[in-house]
Amino acid sequence: MKFICKQAEINEALANVSRAVPPKSTISALEGVKLYLNKNILELTGYDLELGIQTKIEVQSEDVGECILNSRLFNEIIRKMPSETIEVEVDENLTTTIRGYNAEYKILAMPADEYPSIPDHDTGDNFTVRQPMLKNMINETVFAVAVVDNKPILMGELFDIADHDFNLVAIDGYRLAVRSEKIESDNHYNFVVKAKALSEVSKLLKDDENESVTMHVSKKHITFEIGKYMVLSRLLEGEFHNYKGSIPEKHSTEIVINARELIACLERCMLLINEKAKAPVKCLFKDGKVKISCSSALGKLNDEMDADMSGSSVEIGFNCRYLLEALKASESDKVRLQLNGGLSPMKIVPMEGTAYTFLVLPMRLKSEQ
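^ that's the sequence the OP posted. Answer follows.
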């Protein structure tokens, strides 16, 4: 088979589909990108048996054929080709010639029948949302996904959709993040998508309000249709945590605070904290002031800022990074912090509406131990 294509187009397609290619696999074919040529359409696929990314580009050809090329090598060759136009030719012995200007590579391909089939998605059960909305929902919750597999189901995010309410939920045992939006779907869904897949989906989503993403859901897989790209992910199995039961409905203290100022303060605390010098950040909410202190082997910090406060005074400790990531995810200038004493989680919500809810569990301070 033989085709001619634009270097920029195949370079972008390869860079994106290769993110689903494992660097090492017991199935050597999976370390490659599968090419399927059907005349003027070239389909490229990367797949690691859990995550698959596929796209199509237009090429100049009248041939039909398929093969597998090593992802890392093919990527680098295409990326460094000194030509705007690339010619690729695969002979009957799978010797692959790649030409661009005066450069010519010869590498060996693998037969396409060694590549595992990607599961077909169920086109009958799907819903559509705006790309910027899903992108924001993922980016503002993924920080709370568990990174260790003590409970594998928590390494993904819950899609909880019912009565036009779309809740995207992440929990790692120390914090909880919920992003909520209204959508037009009448269907009910409850499934968990691995965070790795959602991170790749987020990279493909655009900020254009006119662009949509369609999600096809089957019993074991979800497929995201994003423009010319298709991303398939195996769903995580198991029972997700009852997140609604974990969110406090009432509070005894509420603080309205400038989120940017608090973030800056916590970043100053982070200068004194690392793996060898671990320490909680102590927050004292009292008399319209927030007094923040941190003491580690590296040094001490005392800081203070103004806030609008109602309810009783509270002294509470947090893992500084956990609180910082939640505040950054809010992307708000002002937030409401809601507390029920020094041993209950802090609830972070917007000034108006219910677009997000973040919970951060406290750390016991030395005086409480």
